[in-house]
Amino acid sequence: FKMAKAKQSINCDQVTYDNPSVVHDALKHYLGYLLHKTTLIYKFESNKKMEALNLQGFHIAALSIIDFDNSTNQIQICSETGVDKATMVKTIDHLEKLGLVVRTESKNDRRVKHLSLTKKGKTVLLQAKKIRSECEKSFLSKLTHKEAELFRDMLLRLIQK
């Protein structure tokens, strides 16, 4: 099973709802609708809070992967996140302009650029992780701690099926 790579926009269009908790009766049994609406609401709220850092969720994902493995490159991040190569170039350009990431040429292949976080990048990533954690806590606040952990576990199981 190979999933097609999703085209990711650098500038997310903000979706707003007059009342986000409203679910139309005709759609309340559609898993895809519920997942999509949940994702839109979560992304809107978290992107709003990340504006102070001039970052969005996929920027944090890229920074997190680079921090985890500072020998990674753009192609590997594309593979991990499902973001297309052109969008990833723009994403890394953005992070580089902010002074968060540095590209260095591979010793084995001039076409490959290894990515690493700058000192500022590490600091900003810590701030972003704190904001992300607060966003998740707020978003999941209608669930008990145990339910929230179970929800994460179930999502992971569905993804890794």
In short:
By secondary structure, the chain is mainly alpha-helical.
Any key phrases for this structure?
single chain; 161 residues; two-stranded antiparallel ribbon; 6 helices; 6% strand; disordered N terminus
Q: What is this structure's SSE topology?
A:
Elements: H1 31-50, H2 57-68, H3 74-81, H4 85-97, E1 101-105, E2 113-117, H5 119-139, H6 145-159
Helix pairs in contact: 1-5, 2-5, 3-4
Question: Can you characterise this structure?
Answer:
The protein has helices at 31-50, 57-68, 74-81, 85-97, 119-139, 145-159; strands at 101-105, 113-117. The protein is mainly α and 161 residues long. The protein has a two-stranded antiparallel sheet with strand order 1-2. A hairpin with a 7-residue loop joins strand 1 and strand 2. The chain is elongated, with a radius of gyration of 18 Å.
Number of strands: 2
User: Biggest sheet: strands side by side, in what order?
Assistant: 1-2
N- and C-termini, Cα separation: 11 Å
Question: What series of H and E elements makes up the topology?
Answer: HHHHEEHH
Morphology: elongated
- What does the average pLDDT come to? 87
Radius of gyration using CA atoms only: 18 Å
The helix tally amounts to 6
